[in-house]
Design a protein that fits this description.
6 helices, alpha+beta, Methyltransferase, Cobalt-precorrin-4 Transmethylase, Domain 2, 9 strands, about 35% helix
């Protein structure tokens, strides 16, 4: 599996600093990616998977800061999120509840917000747990706080005003 329009991988919810803390901007990026994937079109399904480093350097940084051993798979490095929960003094269940609460408070538009929240799951890969945000294109375009992101390959870009018609046309 590679990063592409319908998939995105994030190393985790915490900033890779000497003293890691919850990374609000990274979480916002996850929400933006959910909206962008949903905007591919009505009924289009995709995923944002948290706990997978996209390169060896990021995996090595996770390993150094959190003292955990990533699991390599097809050029990706599964870091999981257990080390983040432990760092925060939480169980995986408590972390899961925290993330669903954050999704609920996010600027992600309805009904996508409810869909993402009710379909969020923890998936086990060997001894690692990753969070899988399932995304489904809704009956109309989705936005995040008034911005209308869309996927361009593995990147998110805001839809420009002159392209809004084309965005809405995909949902007819």
């Amino acid at each position: 599996m590679t990063e592409q329009a319908a998939y995105d991988f994030k190393q985790g919810f915490y900033a890779l600093k000497q003293t890691p803390s919850f990374d609000e901007s990274a979480f916002d990026k996850i929400m933006e990616t959910c909206a962008a994937i949903a905007n591919i079109g009505k009924g289009h399904k995709g995923y944002v998977i948290v706990g997978v480093a996209e390169n060896a350097q990021t995996a090595a940084r996770v390993q150094k800061i959190f003292k955990c051993q990533p699991q390599s798979f097809n050029g990706f490095h599964v870091t999981g999120v257990e080390h983040e929960a432990k760092h925060a003094g939480k169980s995986l269940d408590e972390m899961f509840q925290d993330i669903t609460d954050r999704v609920g408070r996010s600027a992600l538009s309805e009904p996508l917000k409810s869909y993402v929240n009710s379909h969020l799951k923890c998936v086990q890969y060997y001894d690692k747990t990753v969070f899988v945000f399932e995304v489904l294109g809704q009956d109309g375009p989705s936005h995040l706080g008034g911005k209308w992101p869309e996927r361009h390959g593995a990147q998110n870009k805001d839809v420009l005003p002159e392209h809004m018609g084309a965005l809405f046309e995909r949902f007819r």
